[in-house]
């Protein structure tokens, strides 16, 4: 897996490149970047800071996002199928029309997040925090739910 520096990613993205599959971006600070339409298929983003990052229409299939920070990230029309979000921070994230099928959401923090029209078929949900989250059209019946945390304000619909 090829290791990329932040400057290289920014430069290539600015020049119009969107396909960055199977690269290592672990631990990088990508906070606040606009990465709309990016293809990160199979990318390692473990421990990356994606706080406030715009990832609309991004392909994040098979991406390792374990221990990453997605605080206030925008994930509209995003493919997160088979991705690992174990212990990721998705606090206040905006997740709309997103595919999370067969993903790992073990000890993931979705507190105060907004999730609408999110598919979670076959997704592993274990000790996941949905405290004060808004869940609209998120059908948990096809997910493998072991344990979730939520408040009375969080009502999955």
Describe this structure in words.
This protein has one domain (about 1-155): Pectate Lyase C-like, CATH 2.160.20. The protein has a 4-stranded parallel sheet with strand order 3-4-6-8, with no helix packed on it. A 3-stranded parallel sheet has the order 5-7-9, with no helix packed on it. The radius of gyration is 15 Å and the shape is globular. By secondary structure, the protein is mainly β. It starts with a strand and ends in an 8-residue tail after the last strand. The mean pLDDT is about 95. About 5% of the residues lie in helices and about 25% in strands. β1 (about 1-5), α1 (about 5-15) and β2 form a beta-alpha-beta unit.
